[in-house]
From TrEMBL:
GO cellular component, one term: outer membrane
Species of the source: Flavobacterium piscinae
InterPro entries: OMP/PagP_B-barrel, OMPW
Pfam families registered for this protein in UniProt: OmpW
Entry keywords, A to Z: Signal
Superkingdom of the organism of origin: Bacteria
GO BP field: transmembrane transport
Leader peptide range in chain numbering: 1-21
This protein's name: OmpW family protein
Lineage: Bacteria, Pseudomonadati, Bacteroidota, Flavobacteriia, Flavobacteriales
PANTHER family per the UniProt record, alphabetical: OUTER MEMBRANE PROTEIN W (PTHR36920:SF1), PTHR36920
Keyword Signal attributed: yes
Length: 227
């Protein structure tokens, strides 16, 4: 039900955006902008791990990010966010006594790269008369691709399912002039994936399933240009 409600809200934002675009015929503003940001990706992770139990730990990452925004009106816009990040992964407090290990052990699961293109619909405010400070809010959809999986030295293989999630966003631009600006942005992705860990090298037939919630915070700072 929550997913249906979120999807309805996102679709409503897009419908409103296109409606406003049809109503506003003025071309006295720049419709495109591009930004280059440095972002910190901070997972807020948790997991349900079968057989061995425990939780999951996913490392933070700092990476560059590129995004493009199109303004349908001066207030309504759509933004496409592109970036990729590498994360180290391990279980926390897993019970591997069945294969001769301790009852609480952190299993190294190597690393994985995430490519999470995200599309958000945004509303931009102009609270100051001179319009130099422009805050905005946004909501949208994310599709995360998991690739370049390195399973580490413990298990045989790991498989991550690609996943669709929701995104929420808040930020602001500070304009230097009508072309260049600095940007601060915070996003939260609501993202989970099913994971299958092939540990048949440790015990015959041992395949460990897990449901992992990543739910990262993404904090960005960068520069942009309108055109």
């Amino acid at each position: 039900m929550k997913k249906i409600v979120y999807a309805f809200v996102v679709m409503s934002l897009f419908v409103t955006t296109f409606t406003q675009a049809q109503e506003e015929k003025s071309n006295d503003f720049k419709r495109w902008q591009v930004r280059l940001r440095g972002i910190g990706v901070v997972p807020n992770e948790s997991a349900k791990i079968g057989i061995i139990g425990g939780d999951v730990a996913i490392s933070n990452a700092i990476v560059p990010e590129l995004d493009f925004t199109y303004f349908f009106t001066k207030n309504f816009a759509a933004e496409l966010i592109l970036g990729t990040a590498k994360h180290d992964v391990n279980t926390v407090g897993s019970d591997i006594s069945a294969i001769g290990g301790p009852t609480s052990f952190d299993v190294d699961l190597g690393s994985v790269m995430l490519l999470p293109p995200t599309l958000t619909a945004q509303y931009h405010f102009f609270p100051l008369k001179e319009k130099k400070f422009k805050p905005y809010v946004g909501a949208g959809l994310n599709y995360t691709l998991f690739y370049n999986v390195k399973e580490g030295d413990v298990v045989k293989a790991i498989e991550y399912d690609n996943a669709i999630g929701f995104a929420a966003q808040v930020g602001f631009d500070v304009m230097f002039d009508d072309t260049f600006f600095v940007n601060f942005d915070v996003k939260r992705l609501f993202l989970k994936t099913d994971v299958s860990v092939d540990a048949t090298n440790l015990a015959e037939g041992l395949v460990i399933p897990a449901e992992v919630e990543i739910n990262p915070w993404i904090v960005g700072l960068g520069f942009g240009m309108k055109f």
